[in-house]
Write a structure and sequence with these properties.
single chain, 185 residues, mainly alpha, two-stranded antiparallel sheet, 2 strands
């Protein structure tokens, strides 16, 4: 039976443009919005006003307040886990699909990588404008590592893209034949 190859011309480097960069950008933006909204809601509920018959401050501090503190302390690590998970997935994908793409795709991958660098510069500039808004200081105070990662996105895209291309087109064999002619390690 003849093995059918993927005729669409999609390679591992295209994953950077189509999957990783949008998820990374939107993921960090959504994480920042979630942290900002949760912190604002918790602060609003913690206000002790004399007009109310019941004070929500004690109930909020003992329930949502502790959750809010935990979220504020770990939000940056959640963002970094998302970022490194995506990068690790790309590298693993490139490793397992190495040698399956024709060598001609290397030129296509290089063009995709260049266009991805242009898109990442644009997204970095948009993100820089976004985090410099005074109301959105959550990105600077609660997500400094994730924000630094997104601000250095063009450099990271270039490095990760080259690693993925090297792994995708490397001549590392998948399996080797044993003396009996069976495949194994």
């Amino acid at each position: 039976m003849i093995e059918k190859r993927d005729k669409r011309g999609i390679s591992a480097t295209a994953d950077i443009l189509k999957v990783v960069i949008p998820i990374l950008f939107v993921g960090v933006i959504i994480l920042g919005i979630f942290v900002f909204a949760f912190d604002t809601i918790t602060d609003s509920l913690s206000v002790d006003t004399p007009q109310m018959q019941y004070s929500l401050k004690n109930a909020t501090d003992s329930s949502l307040g502790k959750l809010n503190i935990g979220l504020l302390n770990s939000a940056d690590w959640i963002g970094l886990a998302l970022i490194f998970g995506l990068i690790g997935g790309m590298i693993i994908n490139a490793f397992f699909f190495r040698g399956r793409y024709p060598k001609l795709f290397f030129i296509i991958d290089l063009l995709i990588l260049i266009s991805t660098l242009i898109v990442s510069v644009y997204l970095t500039n948009v993100y820089e404008i976004l985090i410099n808004e005074p109301i959105l200081d959550v990105y600077k105070t609660n997500l400094p590592l994730s924000s630094t990662f997104v601000l250095k996105l063009p450099m990271i895209v270039g490095i990760v893209g080259m690693i993925v291309m090297i792994l995708s087109y490397s001549g590392i064999p998948h399996k080797r034949k044993t003396l009996e002619g069976e495949y194994g390690y």
